[in-house]
Amino acid sequence: MTIERVIVTGGAGFIGTAVVRQLLDRRVAVLSLDALTYAASPEAVDGDAIPAGYRLEAGDVRDSADVARVLTDFQPDGVIHLAAESHVDRSIDGPRAFLETNVTGTFVVLETVTSWWRELGGPSRERFRLVHVSTDEVFGSLEPDDPPFTAETPYRPRSPYSASKAAADHFARAWHETYGLPVIVTNCSNNFGPWQFPEKFIPVVISRALAWEPIPIYGAGDQVRDWLHVEDHASGLLAALERGAPGSTYLFGARNEWSNRALAELICDLLDGMVPDKRGARRKLLENVTDRPGHDSRYAIDPSLAERELGWEPRHTFTDALRDTIRWYVDHRSWAEDRLAKLGGYRRRGLGESA
Ligand code: NAD
Q1: 197 lines ligand 1 (CB under 6 A)
Q2: Ligand 1 contact, 137 CB (< 6 A)
Q3: Which helix (H) or strand (E) holds 176?
Q4: For 89-103, 130-144, 201-215, 340-354, which range has the lowest pLDDT when averaged over its residues?
Q5: Ligand 1 center to 273 CA (angstroms)
Q6: Which residues, 6+ apart, have CB-to-CB distance to 12 below 8 Å?
Q7: pLDDT for 104-154, tens place per residue?
Q8: Does the C-beta of 15 come closer than 6 Å to ligand 1?
Q9: To 10 degrees, what angle do helices 201-210 and 333-342 make?
Q10: Can you tell me the distance from the alpha carbon of 109 to that of 120, in angstroms, rounded to the nearest whole number?
Q11: What spacing in Å lies between the alpha carbon of 348 and ligand 1's midpoint?
Q12: Largest CA distance in the chain
């Protein structure tokens, strides 16, 4: 199917900007609808110049007038819905924003898109797809010997973030079943790469190691995450938009499980090689701190359905891509420092006192 015009909600975020860059590379016209919260980095698309075929609209997915306006104006062939509050630690301290953006925002997107889509003429209506982007965290926590998550794994969210994403996924599937809206749901494992907001695990480790500050490791650091490069996630979302079957669910991951401690050690070692420091090895900066309440112990994805049905596969080799990501943060140190400084610097969140 030829896709020519796509609306990306949350298109100024970490994954959204990667999706927008790939769409623009393919000469697809893009309208990015984004509330430009603290997490937005529109400069990851338009930092040098505003690319041809790209438009950024400040707007809120909770506001049906904003969503209706861009649909009517832009007449997309597809919507990729990424707008969300995305940081688990913040969801522990302030869950309401997660309910409002992730659940109500998704509801408003589904309702507004459905009204607009129903009025489309035959071919446009046939061609249209909505890709709802979710996380593997909705499936809950795996034991070490459990098989990886598949699209058949029951939902068992355990944090306010994952509960809000799970609720949104249920709404998205219900809109397909009830109203026939051509919705495709995707669940992805942890992403990494350039432009990730410096409160997330990998950028925190890099930034703290560079600044020679203690690097917090929650609990024993034995929680396992399955890491995928953000560009591989973005290519999966484009494949789902172009080739996904409405009503289907696709899981993206790279069969790349790491414990938090092992990954932090690898980052320290790579950084030591890249930017040696006379104080020695950065591993000694790792510091075990109080664990996150309800911390899931393991996530792992079985991506075989996406590989088989979408012809998708990750292109990045983990250690090389991690080295490139570290190099990017070394080269963009002031970007990460400025972003954190605007929030008053790095601060441990999510200990649950205010919940
Ligand atoms: P992010 O926090 O970097 O970006 C989110 C974007 O959404 C920001 O630009 C923000 O301004 C925008 N936004 C927030 N509230 C909004 C609102 N009410 N209206 C419009 N825009 C709003 O997040 P991300 O890491 O890019 O994640 C994007 C999506 O992918 C989320 O839905 C997330 O749940 C999902 N996801 C993320 C990961 C990951 O590892 N980061 C993994 C799987 C799935």
Answers
A1: yes
A2: no
A3: helix 160-179
A4: 340-354
A5: 32
A6: 32, 34, 36, 40, 41, 42, 44, 45, 56
A7: 999 999 999 999 999 998 999 999 999 999 999 999 999 999 999 999 999
A8: yes
A9: 110
A10: 17
A11: 20
A12: 67
Ligand 1 probe mutation, 7, 8, 9, 15, most atoms within 8 A of CB: 15
Strand, coil or helix: 298: strand
Is residue 1 very low, low, confident or very high in pLDDT (cuts 50, 70, 90)? low
Name the residue type at position 294: G
The CA–CA distances, whole Å, from 1 to 123, 240, 251, 269, 333 equal: 12, 11, 21, 45, 41
How many other C-beta atoms lie within 10 A of the C-beta of residue 121? 7
Distance CA 89, CA 83 (A): 18
Query: How many residues belong to the chain?
Result: 355
Q: At what angle do helices 105-118 and 160-179 cross, to 10 degrees?
A: 20
Ligand 1 centroid vs 9 CA: distance in angstroms? Answer: 9
Q: Would you say the CB of residue 67 lies under 6 angstroms from ligand 1?
A: no
Pairing of strands 183-188, 29-34: unpaired
pLDDT at 346: 86
pTM assigned to the model? 0.98
- Residue of 8, 17, 86, 196 best suited for mutating to test ligand 1, as the one with most atoms within 8 Å of CB: 86
Nearest CA to ligand 1 atom 15: 84
Is pLDDT of 355 > 70?
no
Is the CB of residue 41 below 6 angstroms from any atom belonging to ligand 1?
Answer: no
Distance 42 CA to ligand 1 centre (A): 13
Query: Which residues are marked as active site?
Result: 136-137, 161
Give 76's Cβ-side CA count (13 Å radius). 30
Distances (CA, A) of 142 to 137, 145, 227, 334: 10, 8, 15, 37
Q: Crossing angle, helix 64-74 and helix 105-118, to 10 degrees?
A: 40
258/261 Cα distance (integer angstroms): 8
